[in-house]
């Protein structure tokens, strides 16, 4: 099934995706399926003779071959000598037995010291069979092919995650997309106001996303008006944990971790109060009048926010870190400073780069950023705007992150796969790599995870936004490299296994940034803060290219609110 786009996506997106696909396909020589290894044979056999002969077509060889043919019933032709006193033989087997049985027959001949069927070997890259993975390769694949790639096929040879690790997605809830539903564990709906929840009630045990659309005639507290549902939580969750190697849809970063949907954002966004409770519950901390989380998350992904880190957000991060929980947050899409909670101390703050590795024009940056991950878009120096039309001069064109979504403008209708852009989709790539690190070693602390991610990041490409001018140091340690991170992270001791519960807390956790503090949060307009959805980037035309960066943003929500 090819990557299909929602009808809301502009034609330019479709064209861009075609370009992306072309780049992906041209960069891959031999896609191979992951999973159990099944040998592919050539019909040839490698043989070592007991007398050590390695000649070809010599009279002695020919005589020996005729005798072996007689005893084994095989048709044998010499092909070439090999190193190590071996010969390669082409063999015809009239009995129809398999290659291993034929080799055994050869070995039973007294003239044969050993015989092994020649077979195909394959690159130690794990490439899943999901049909849309070709669209994902420019950002998930090897940096040799695409500078922004996070090197996942190599990483998947080290780990594909563990089902014992839970990753919470604090977002708009979820839809049971057929390429995602099997990965989920029970979550919770933390939205208190019914006009935000749109599910008819307040908090409850069902985090299903009924849609965060804003109906016509409704004005949000931040002044924004009608909008379609974003299905943001489903899209973010799919980046981490779409069902992978199942022959449909997209691949997730982690093939086995379980995803916990924690619903905090609905119509007009999320309340800080609901979000703090949701984040804390996700990590196993108690929330009044809410049942304990039966499967606490080791990783909490939060792709929404706004304002600056308040004392209560910082306290939540501190308590989560102390419980061994790693918090990964998107820096935001306002082409400005890092927004809360990504600016809290102890959070792994993630900015976004395009497939060519340059920081995306929309992405927030600042000293709080720990690392950059692919988020689609266009590198800041590559974007130009003329007559209201944005052009991305990168050879790869505009970049997109493939995500699972739904075509419903209000409630859910048809499931889909759509291209998305934003730091919202960069953060879950980091979260998925972190969950694979935890699969290798559940005892890793937030601080250690942060240190390893930063230490193994690849440098930002030379002569791009993050390496020039006064931007140096604003984009984190570099570009995420999943393979390098999994290789460098300390492995579990023999006494530790991935099926064990999380390690006990070890203290204050990560210190990935110097932000945080106790400033009061403005929480976004009207006290709400909303997902950094890229939906608007996809669905609405272009507007506003001002400020210090070459900004490409949606018309809706740019100045009024947080829907970006
Ligand atoms: Ca509810
Ligand atoms: Ca899939």
TrEMBL record:
<protein>
    <submittedName>
        <fullName>Serine protease, subtilase family</fullName>
    </submittedName>
</protein>
<dbReference type="InterPro" id="IPR036852">
    <property type="entry name" value="Peptidase_S8/S53_dom_sf"/>
</dbReference>
<feature type="active site" description="Charge relay system">
    <location>
        <position position="171"/>
    </location>
</feature>
<keyword id="KW-0645">Protease</keyword>
<feature type="region of interest" description="Disordered">
    <location>
        <begin position="490"/>
        <end position="524"/>
    </location>
</feature>
<feature type="active site" description="Charge relay system">
    <location>
        <position position="232"/>
    </location>
</feature>
<dbReference type="InterPro" id="IPR000209">
    <property type="entry name" value="Peptidase_S8/S53_dom"/>
</dbReference>
<dbReference type="InterPro" id="IPR023828">
    <property type="entry name" value="Peptidase_S8_Ser-AS"/>
</dbReference>
<dbReference type="InterPro" id="IPR022398">
    <property type="entry name" value="Peptidase_S8_His-AS"/>
</dbReference>
<dbReference type="InterPro" id="IPR050131">
    <property type="entry name" value="Peptidase_S8_subtilisin-like"/>
</dbReference>
<keyword id="KW-0614">Plasmid</keyword>
<keyword id="KW-0720">Serine protease</keyword>
<feature type="active site" description="Charge relay system">
    <location>
        <position position="424"/>
    </location>
</feature>
<feature type="compositionally biased region" description="Polar residues">
    <location>
        <begin position="216"/>
        <end position="229"/>
    </location>
</feature>
<dbReference type="InterPro" id="IPR015500">
    <property type="entry name" value="Peptidase_S8_subtilisin-rel"/>
</dbReference>
<feature type="compositionally biased region" description="Low complexity">
    <location>
        <begin position="490"/>
        <end position="500"/>
    </location>
</feature>
<dbReference type="InterPro" id="IPR021206">
    <property type="entry name" value="MprA_tail"/>
</dbReference>
<keyword id="KW-0472">Membrane</keyword>
<feature type="transmembrane region" description="Helical">
    <location>
        <begin position="529"/>
        <end position="546"/>
    </location>
</feature>
<dbReference type="Pfam" id="PF00082">
    <property type="entry name" value="Peptidase_S8"/>
</dbReference>
<feature type="region of interest" description="Disordered">
    <location>
        <begin position="195"/>
        <end position="229"/>
    </location>
</feature>
<keyword id="KW-1133">Transmembrane helix</keyword>
<keyword id="KW-0812">Transmembrane</keyword>
<feature type="compositionally biased region" description="Gly residues">
    <location>
        <begin position="506"/>
        <end position="524"/>
    </location>
</feature>
<comment type="similarity">
    <text>Belongs to the peptidase S8 family.</text>
</comment>
<dbReference type="GO" id="GO:0004252">
    <property type="term" value="F:serine-type endopeptidase activity"/>
</dbReference>
<keyword id="KW-0378">Hydrolase</keyword>
<feature type="domain" description="Peptidase S8/S53">
    <location>
        <begin position="164"/>
        <end position="458"/>
    </location>
</feature>
<dbReference type="GO" id="GO:0006508">
    <property type="term" value="P:proteolysis"/>
</dbReference>
């Amino acid at each position: 099934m090819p990557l299909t786009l929602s009808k809301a996506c502009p034609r330019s997106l479709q064209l861009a995706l075609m370009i992306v696909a072309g780049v992906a396909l041209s960069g891959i020589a031999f896609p191979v399926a992951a999973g159990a290894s099944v040998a592919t044979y050539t019909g040839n056999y490698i043989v070592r003779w007991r007398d050590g002969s390695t000649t070809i077509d010599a009279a002695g060889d020919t005589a020996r071959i005729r005798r072996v043919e007689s005893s084994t019933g095989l048709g044998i032709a010499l092909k070439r000598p090999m190193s190590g006193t071996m010969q390669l033989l082409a063999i015809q087997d009239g009995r129809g037995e398999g290659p291993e049985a034929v080799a055994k027959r050869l070995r039973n001949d007294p003239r044969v010291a050993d015989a092994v069927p020649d077979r195909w070997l394959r690159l130690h890259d794990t490439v899943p069979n999901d049909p849309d993975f070709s669209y994902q390769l420019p950002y998930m694949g090897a940096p040799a092919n695409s500078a922004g790639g996070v090197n996942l096929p190599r990483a998947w040879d080290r780990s594909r995650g563990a089902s014992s690790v839970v990753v919470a997605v604090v977002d708009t809830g979820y839809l049971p997309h057929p390429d995602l539903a099997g990965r989920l564990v029970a979550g919770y709906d933390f939205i208190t106001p019914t006009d935000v929840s749109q599910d008819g009630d307040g908090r409850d045990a069902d985090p299903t996303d009924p849609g965060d659309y804003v109906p016509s005639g409704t004005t949000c507290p931040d002044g924004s008006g009608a909008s379609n549902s974003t299905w943001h939580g489903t899209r973010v969750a799919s980046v981490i944990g779409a069902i992978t190697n199942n022959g449909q849809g997209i691949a997730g970063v982690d093939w086995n971790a379980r995803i916990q949907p924690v619903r905090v954002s609905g119509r007009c966004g999320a309340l800080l109060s609901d979000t703090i409770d949701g984040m804390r519950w996700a990590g196993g901390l108690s929330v009044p009048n809410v049942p304990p989380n039966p499967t606490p998350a080791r990783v909490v992904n939060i792709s929404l926010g706004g304002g600056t880190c308040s004392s209560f957000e910082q306290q939540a991060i501190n308590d989560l870190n102390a419980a061994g929980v790693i918090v990964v947050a998107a820096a935001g899409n306002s082409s400005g400073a890092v927004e809360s909670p990504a600016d809290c101390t102890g959070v792994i703050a993630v900015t976004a780069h395009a497939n060519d590795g340059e920081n995306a024009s929309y992405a927030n940056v600042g000293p709080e950023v720990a690392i950059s991950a692919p988020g689609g878009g266009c590198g800041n120096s590559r974007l130009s705007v003329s007559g209201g039309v944005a052009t991305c001069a990168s050879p790869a064109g505009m970049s997109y992150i493939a995500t699972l979504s739904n075509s419903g403008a209000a409630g859910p209708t048809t499931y889909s796969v759509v291209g998305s852009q934003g730091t919202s989709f960069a953060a879950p790539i980091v979260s998925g790599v972190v969950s694979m690190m935890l699969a290798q070693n559940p005892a890793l602390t937030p601080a250690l995870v942060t240190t390893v991610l930063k230490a193994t990041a690849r440098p930002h490409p030379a002569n791009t936004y993050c390496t020039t001018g006064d931007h140096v140091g604003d984009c984190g340690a570099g570009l995420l490299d999943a393979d390098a991170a999994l290789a460098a992270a300390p492995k579990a001791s023999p006494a530790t296994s991935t099926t064990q519960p999380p390690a006990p807390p070890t203290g204050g956790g990560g210190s990935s940034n110097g932000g945080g503090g106790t400033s009061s949060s403005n929480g976004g307009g009207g006290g709400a803060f909303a997902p950094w959805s890229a939906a608007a980037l996809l669905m609405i035309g272009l507007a506003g290219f001002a400020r210090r960066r070459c900004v490409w943003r949606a018309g809706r929500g740019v100045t009024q609110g947080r829907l970006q």
